[in-house]
Amino acid sequence: MMSGVMKMKAVGCLGDGVAVPSSVARELSRVDSLEYAVFPGFCDVHVHFREPGFSYKETMVTGSRASARGGYTDVCTMPNLNPVPDSVENLQIQRNLIREGACIHVYPYGAITVGEQGQVMADLEGMAPDVIAFSDDGKGVQSDDMMRQAMLRAKALGKMIVAHCEVNDLLRGGYIHDGDYAKTHGHRGICSESEYAQIARDIELVKETGCKYHVCHISTRESVELIRKAKAEGVDITCETGPHYLVMNDSMLREEGRFKMNPPIRSEEDRKALVEGLLDGTIDMIATDHAPHSAEEKAKGLENSAFGVVGIETAFAVMYTHFVEPGILPLERLIDLLAANPRKRFGIPCGDSYTVWDLNKEFTVDPGEFLSMGKATPFEGWKLKGECVMTICDGKVVYEKQED
């Protein structure tokens, strides 16, 4: 796959020495601009499309269309659904919805445990041919032995364990970071140890079992340090973080549900450690944890709103504006984080999939313009740079910006 940046300086022209299938070139020729950047389609290994079970939050149709608008041609959907994909029969319900409604490639996860309850192992063997990996995302697997057995079975099946790391006993009813904002405003905090303690446990289990292992949405300084050390020791581990953890800290919180997600936005010290981890390669990829909810569920303030924010339509622009434009991160590295690295780790091909961007276009984030049913974003009102003009999946246009 192509990991570099191509410039389209004339209609349909993709730069020097770039071989583009004729079918794709025909679609690109419809783009009316003197200069756009063309990238391989982005790949997000952590999204929530809410079907089956919660179609009032998002559907396969709206989630995939929103992804295409964000430049994504491949996504992996988490299993906190109803029914949970913990058996072949339950998984098939989601696969049918994907086939009928998705305009891009959607790869489902299979649950690690039945109902994501952590008590009984799911049918990993039965689901293995049709899932991208196994995860109980939304919940940490609390039992050491359960995770050990899951890793052993996943290894035997040639699959990866993808872990939401959270120690329930350390949550203590918290809902934002246990930092200055929580203390000043009388909120219950989620301590950093609730995340990194389970990462530390899992690293030891990976050493024991030899399982391929990926950590979801890391948010703490200690998590970065643990993963950096594990990689240096040769542990088969990768990790992701989200744009909001890289550009925000808890001093930027407001008393609104659009600032509530799990894990929470943490301290400036944590944010700087995440940026350092991104720059030195400890953090392998950017994932959005796109998690739509209804307006009612997000209108109850920090304490009572549902956990989760949307981000798949703003991820590139946030990262481009705050990392590439200031010279912190080369554009090629950002494309690796959004496309090449997740594909390599998860074994997802690119094919004839591209996304076309106007890197000079400035805009203000307006959730009312989102294609996602979810509108809760901490970036509302932010001024960003970079707009998706077209997304092509397998040679077919799946998103094209309409003229103003």
Range of helix content: 25-40%
Radius of gyration equals: 20 Å
Give the N-to-C terminal Cα separation.
33 Å
**Helix-strand sequence:** EHEEHEHEHHEEHEHEHEHHEHHHEEE
Largest sheet: 5 strands, antiparallel
Average pLDDT rating: 93
Work out the strand percent: 15-25%
Structural class: alpha/beta
Number of helices: 13
- Name the strands of the widest sheet in spatial order: 1-2-12-13-14
Low-confidence stretches: 1-19
Beta strands, count = 14
Overall shape: it is globular
Give an overview of the whole structure.
The chain is of the alpha/beta class and 404 residues long. The chain has helices at 22-28, 60-69, 88-101, 124-127, 144-156, 180-185, 193-209, 221-232, 243-247, 268-280, 301-304, 315-324, 331-346; strands spanning 6-8, 36-40, 42-47, 72-77, 105-108, 161-163, 176-177, 189-190, 213-215, 237-241, 285-286, 354-364, 383-393, 396-400. α5 crosses α7 (193-209).
For this entry, give a set of tags.
single chain; 404 residues; 4-stranded parallel sheet; 32% helix; alpha/beta
Q: What would you say about this model in short?
A:
The chain is an alpha/beta fold and 404 residues long. It is built from 13 helices and 14 strands.
What is this structure's SSE topology?
Blueprint (H helix, E strand, L loop, with lengths): L5 E3 L13 H7 L7 E5 L1 E6 L12 H10 L2 E6 L10 H14 L3 E4 L15 H4 L16 H13 L4 E3 L12 E2 L2 H6 L3 E2 L2 H17 L3 E3 L5 H12 L4 E5 L1 H5 L20 H13 L4 E2 L14 H4 L10 H10 L6 H16 L7 E11 L18 E11 L2 E5 L4
Parallel strand pairs: 3-4, 4-5, 6-9, 7-8, 9-10, 10-11
Antiparallel strand pairs: 1-2, 2-12, 12-13, 13-14
